[in-house]
């Protein structure tokens, strides 16, 4: 169940998000859930937590907070074992600010966040005010094929990779995990899709907050002819919108693209797209970009208001300067203008000043 939960010392129960096709297709997993077999393991959680806009993985891998068995696996930091003895699971940490826990619940995920993620300075870039979560389940069964059925991931047999040389040497050198190494590439593909969905949820939540913050702007413009925000606040809104655009379209984690790793591995690409389609990532990206388009119109309006405000201020400054210059001219030339209008003769003092001015001019020549 997807959720948004604020971090706290007892973790709160995740709040349900909007229904997705994954939730609507949950009934498809009932045959697996209701008919256990001797070869099938118990159903375990797959819990994902997004805590920041980005993680600096090299800094995390270089820290002593991680277990010594932690490794880099493709674009993730892989921790083969984590948790209390007897209830251990594995964790994939991705650079998009998310980590995916297999066999671990929310409590262990929160503990990993506090003991590892928050314990290494500089790992989190732009931490979220509220963490985003995604909660699925998996089951192991070597007699079944690996797939996503309804809302349940089944880890079973997997077809051979198209290029075994890519991962076979790596897999043979990896430490033992709580789950079979043979299905590690599949778990990685599933995890990357889930992590992408949760990171997108964080952007969606932030964008909703932004849109609410500018929702009264059209009403204010129609009623008063001026925005309800000050100049500094308007500039901050422009900066927020630029960050949304960058986060959705310009960062390395481009939500609309398939990672390069899967171009040569169609089986793993299929696993990746199984979860991506179930979580409706493409449809959500379309909706997100439509909201961005509306926000861009708001941005254009804000920019025009800023330019108009600056132009109006410059006009007032120019008018004030002209008025000051005119006042100085009146003070300096006022007596002469008055004599010209009234025909009054110059006073003796003014004649002396005029004579002295003429003498000074001749001397200067």
How much helical structure, as a percent, in the residues?
A: 40-55%
Q: What is the number of helical segments per DSSP (H or I, 4+ residues)?
A: 11
Largest sheet: 9 strands, mixed
How would you sum up the global shape? elongated
Mean pLDDT: 80
Intertermini distance: 95 Å
Describe the structure.
With 365 residues, the chain is an alpha+beta fold. It is 51% helix and 18% strand. Strands 1, 2, 3, 4, 5, 6, 7, 8 and 9 form a nine-stranded mixed β-sheet that branches. α6 runs parallel beside α10 and α8 packs antiparallel against α10. It is elongated, with a radius of gyration of 34 Å. The termini are far apart.
Short précis:
With 365 residues, this protein is of the alpha+beta class. 51% of the residues lie in helices and 18% in strands. The protein starts with a strand and ends with a helix.
Short key terms for the protein model shown above:
365 residues; disordered N terminus; alpha+beta; nine-stranded mixed beta sheet; 18% strand; 9 strands
What order do the helices and strands come in, and which of them pair?
Layout: E1 3-5, H1 21-24, H2 30-34, E2 44-55, H3 57-61, E3 71-73, E4 76-82, E5 89-94, E6 98-102, H4 106-117, E7 124-145, E8 147-149, E9 152-157, H5 164-172, H6 184-213, H7 217-224, H8 231-250, H9 266-278, H10 281-342, H11 348-364
Parallel strand pairs: 7-9
Antiparallel strand pairs: 1-7, 2-6, 2-7, 3-4, 4-5, 5-6, 8-9
Helix pairs in contact: 6-8, 6-9, 6-10, 8-10
């Amino acid at each position: 169940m997807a959720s948004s939960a604020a971090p706290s010392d007892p973790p709160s129960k995740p709040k349900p998000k909007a229904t997705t096709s994954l939730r609507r297709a949950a009934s498809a997993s009932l045959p697996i859930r209701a008919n256990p077999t001797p070869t099938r393991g118990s159903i375990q959680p797959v819990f994902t937590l997004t805590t920041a806009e980005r993680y600096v993985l090299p800094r995390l891998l270089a820290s002593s907070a991680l277990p010594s068995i932690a490794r880099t696996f493709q674009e993730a930091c892989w921790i083969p074992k984590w948790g209390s003895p007897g209830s251990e699971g594995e964790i994939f940490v991705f650079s998009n600010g998310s980590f995916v826990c297999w066999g671990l619940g929310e409590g262990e995920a929160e503990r990993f966040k506090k003991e590892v993620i928050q314990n290494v300075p500089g790992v989190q870039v732009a931490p979220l005010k509220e963490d985003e979560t995604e909660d699925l389940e998996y089951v192991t069964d070597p007699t079944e094929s690996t797939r996503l059925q309804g809302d349940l991931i089944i880890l079973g047999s997997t077809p051979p990779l198209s290029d075994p040389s890519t991962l076979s040497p790596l897999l043979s050198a990896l430490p033992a995990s709580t789950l079979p190494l043979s299905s590690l590439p599949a778990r990685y593909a599933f995890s990357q899709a889930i992590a992408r969905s949760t990171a997108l949820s964080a952007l969606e939540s932030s964008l909703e907050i932004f849109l609410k913050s500018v929702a009264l702007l059209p009403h204010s413009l129609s009623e008063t002819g001026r925005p309800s925000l000050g100049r500094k606040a308007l500039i901050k809104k422009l900066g927020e919108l630029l960050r949304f655009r960058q986060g959705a379209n310009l960062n390395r984690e481009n939500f609309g693209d398939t990672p390069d790793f899967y171009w040569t591995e169609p089986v793993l690409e299929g696993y990746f797209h199984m979860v991506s389609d179930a979580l409706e990532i493409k449809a959500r990206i379309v909706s997100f970009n439509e909201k961005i388009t509306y926000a861009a119109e708001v941005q254009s309006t804000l920019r025009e208001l800023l330019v108009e405000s600056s132009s109006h201020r410059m006009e007032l400054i120019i008018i004030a300067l002209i008025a000051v210059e005119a006042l100085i001219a009146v003070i300096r030339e006022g007596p002469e203008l008055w004599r010209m209008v009234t025909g009054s003769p110059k006073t003796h003092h003014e004649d002396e000043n005029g004579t002295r001015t003429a003498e000074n001019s001749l001397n200067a020549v």
